[in-house]
Amino acid sequence: MKNKQLTKAAPTKLESRSLTLTWLSLKVFIAHYRHAPLQAGAILLGIALAVTLLIGVKATNDNAVRSYSDATELLSQRADVLLTPPLGENSLNESVYFALRTAGLSQSLAVVNGKISGKNGLFWQLEGSDLIAALTLQQSRNSASSETSPTSSPQINDLPLAELLSGAPTVIMSQSLAAKVAPDGKLILENSSLDVISIDDSFGLGSAILADISLAQQLLNMQGQLSYIAMFSERADLPQLKSQLDALGITPQKASFSQQDQGQALVALTRSFHLNLNAMSMLAFVVGLFIAYNGVRYSLMKRQKLLVQLLQQGIERRALMTALMLELVLLVVIGSSLGFISGLQLSHWLQPMVAMTLEQMYGAHLLPGIWQWTWLFEAIALTLAAALAACLPLYRDLTRQALAQGANRYQQMQAHRKTHSIQFASACGLLGIAALLFPFSQSYNISLVLLGIVTIAIPLLLPQLLHWGVSALMPLARPGLWQYLLAETRELIAPLSLAMMAILLALSANVSMNTLVGSFEQTLRTWLETRLHADLYIRPPSQRIDTIQTQLMHDSRVSGLYQQWQIEAELSLPVSTENPSKQTIPVSLLSRDGYSVRHTSALKESLPTLWQSYFNAHVILVSEPLALKYQLKLGDSVSLDALAKTGNCQAIIGGIYYDHGNTRNEVIISQPLWQQAQLPPLPISLAASFHGDKQGRKITETALDQLQVELAAELGLSQAQIYSQTKIKIQAIAMFKRTFSITLVLNSLTLIVAAIGLFSACLMLTQARQAPLARLYSLGVSRNALRGMVFMQMLIVVLITCLLAMPTGALLGYLLINKITLQAFGWTIKMIWDWQAYGHAILIALATCTLAVLLPLYWQTRKPLVASLQQETL
């Protein structure tokens, strides 16, 4: 019995001793960081930067996805059903809404919306609704949510009801938007001065402008008309609702019935955009972890003798290993917490950019941002897992080293070279896999995997290539200090490799993203030159378009008048092996006059007899995004519901045209086919060309501006409703740049993170070399020669890295342009090099390297020679 008690007590005593040794080791490591704060700072900096970009993008993306599913009618609930204008009509008669209310269907809301001109040629999205009905629905939603959730939400009493319902020219904005566009409480729309009421952002107005429906109808010239009616009903009651509508005579000829999808379509549409942001944030996360790992390795290198001494003093290897892991956990928690705070601030800055991009490309409105504590725990878990996976092999090697051997420099270098060879072989294997996958990467997801494989392989190539590059320079060096310079540079590759891998990854991403943006901008400019052929483009109110068209036809200054018609329709794909069941797609159905279609449709491919059959048969043109997304090909037969009145809904795809910057599905039919289908006879927009001078030259830009002013006055339009060709190009390019602003910001932040990592690595390495440099100085090498030597060593390594970043960046750019962007958005882009942007990225790397080298050298020159030599013994 006594032996059993001793057996039970022994493990407890051993565990207590192990814990004591672990705690003592951890105290020693903390004391080490008190004397060397730069090492702890480098590790925390890398972790904080990594988590900052990860949390910043995650918070932004999560908030956007939440907005899709939580979006409601303004100041109301999420609609379950929409009654939209019947096929071929642009608006809905408000008598339908009165019939619903009279029949007791009070769970409905009338809405009118549209673009309205403001000051300086700007257009705003104005939305008007039955505010009494909206606020009543909002109140019922708040009552229901308060029963299920104790959290507070915006209340109906918080709104200035008296001002809203008084009939005064008043609009409502969120506080954040009002502070930007109407700080004085006034807004000019359609030459009318409106009072602005700002309400809390929690009401979810976003960037919309809301007005009472009577005011909105007046401003949009839609008296007696509605854009749609939102209806609210339980899913189980939808069949009953449809029966009630039929009983009221609200047939498809009066209103189209469409069930809502709770934001799923918008989630699917924007998936590629959010994947791109996530990919860039993960890239920055990896770059930040490189910095942290480099700091950990440098710290362990400086503590190598200390670890040996602890082992010699009787500290168990397991206790030492546990202390190192606890130290890493502590650093990860602190660094992740700092990164979490700064990441939320970054998200606050990124939110307006993302909101603008999503609104311009997809028509999505973002709700006010929220944050969750779970993001911090996720960041800590992810960072800790990555840090442990990277550092455990290093910890294991250090804690298993022989006590008598200590730090054997030769064996360390051999181990580094072996590791670099393995990394190079692994990179070649990954690139081989990517080459095999390339022919099969016909979908966005596979292409994204392909891009990820190449991104992982690129930095693994670098250490071995640096070693070969420096070795190739050895025969060119003169004997003496130059040969010593290159020989020592080879020894520096191992401690610098991680920082160089981070800068290579960031430079490659920078080169590829600048290639994408520069190529897209040039492609867009070229496409606009083809697409825009008229001098002025006019979009008058629908009620006046017939009158204005007649005036322009009789205007002697007009040399050509062009029209465009547009409605919403549905296209049905043919049943095939890829589509075993019938699939219906909402599309924008357009028609243009014969001259515009022939001369402005930038065709990607077409049937040989396209123009012979286009104006005489059921032949259509489809946009490139639509064709790529649904794998449509020339000669395919599809069905268009809008052609029902022709007796044949089937149509043949005769051509596929480029449609850069547009994410909508578009189909163009000929004007004879449009008329045969009895679609709306009035166009939605007009374009006009004007006579030039007597020599036949085009009208000058100055004369066109003056003509625009005169025409606006003659036609009774605002100048914001008349666009010149130059103005459209400028606005299109400006919208393009705003759309890609978030991508460029993240790209720049990634490069800055890598530059900070390079600075940190160079700073620590130069400080670690104080003793060798002091020995050279004591042997007669001047300080200027030492500075030049150290700078040349870093310059060689950075230049080789930058040279490698050019082809690797080009490879990533090719994949982004010809795979990712093409498959995700359906835009064919011609790849163009932007040498100026590449030069800027390389200059940042060189400037960072110079600063990181000169600062420690300056500090060293102020220290006594003996103090520098004493670094050898530390």
From TrEMBL:
Record keywords, A-Z: Cell membrane, Membrane, Transmembrane, Transmembrane helix
Database matches in InterPro entries: ABC3_permease_C, Lipoprotein-release_system
Record field: transmembrane: 36-57, 279-300, 320-350, 370-395, 422-440, 446-471, 492-513, 744-768, 789-817, 837-859
ABC3 transporter permease C-terminal domain residues: 279-399, 747-862
Keyword Kinase tagged: no
Coiled-coil region: none
Cell location: Cell membrane
The keyword Transmembrane belongs to this UniProt entry's keyword annotation: yes
Membrane protein topology class: Multi-pass membrane protein
Main location class: membrane
Entry's family note: Belongs to the ABC-4 integral membrane protein family. LolC/E subfamily.
Xref: PANTHER family: LIPOPROTEIN-RELEASING SYSTEM TRANSMEMBRANE PROTEIN LOLE
The protein's name: ABC3 transporter permease C-terminal domain-containing protein
Organism encoding this protein: Shewanella glacialipiscicola
